[in-house]
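Write out this protein's structure.
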Amino acid sequence: MKLAKAERELRRAIAAAPRRILCVDLDGCLAEYTSWCGYTCIGFPRPSVKALVLEEHKAGSYIIIHTARVTSKANTIIPEALAAVREWLVAMEIPYDEIWTGTGKPYASLYLDDKAHNIDCTECNERWLRRRNSVNERNGINGKTRKARR
């Protein structure tokens, strides 16, 4: 119960704060992503997302870069990956306040994430639909009805 109360208080404090918190996913959202090619291999920035991050930064928002590439399956930080993300952000002139290295997603006022299906990216939407249809086929789901399994 104490944790729930603390979380409510934190949310109230963040909502009352003058700074908005923007959480941006790296791979597939801020940076183009086609396939895994290593921790230090990061695609080119998406111009529309970069422009939005720059606009939010100018407006005083707190920018969090969210990526799973810096955390191993054992839930430890991969220093080379974290350094590569920092270097990429500096090289691409993308402002940020924090690179999220925790589990799950951090609390934020606004999320930009290709897997959440919330950005204006035709390629991302098509990739999401292909994945969803593939999973549905594997699970025997046709539209909204599920085929009986034997």
